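User: Please run a holo structure prediction.
Assistant: Happy to. Please share the sequence and the ligand.
User: Here you go; the ligand is flavin-adenine dinucleotide.
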Amino acid sequence: MGPGVLTSLGSDVLRAPVGNIHLVGTGTAVVWKGYMDGAVRSGQRGAEEVITSLRG
Ligand SMILES: Cc1cc2nc3c(=O)[nH]c(=O)nc-3n(C[C@H](O)[C@H](O)[C@H](O)COP(=O)(O)OP(=O)(O)OC[C@H]3O[C@@H](n4cnc5c(N)ncnc54)[C@H](O)[C@@H]3O)c2cc1C
């Protein structure tokens, strides 16, 4: 992909839960995609999503 593709075509879609499935991984990170930093950030975001979902 060239520069700007993910930001212009809606990278939010990559992070949107599908039913009870919550998507994490460095490719879904807001910053530092492709790096450990992004992987850890996405894991924290996913965990928060699941906790929020379980609390209703
Ligand atoms: C050679 C190399 C060097 C790197 N060096 C650095 C570095 O110096 N610094 C840095 O910040 N980043 C580095 N990275 C990038 C970093 O390793 C990744 O960004 C990070 O590991 C991504 O973590 P992740 O959890 O998103 O994905 P992954 O670590 O890829 O984890 C995904 C997991 O899902 C599993 N999986 C896949 N499909 C399925 C399935 N269908 N069912 C069940 N499990 C499945 C895989 O086996 C894997 O264990 C490097 C990457 C490589 C390849």
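Residues 24-56 form one domain.
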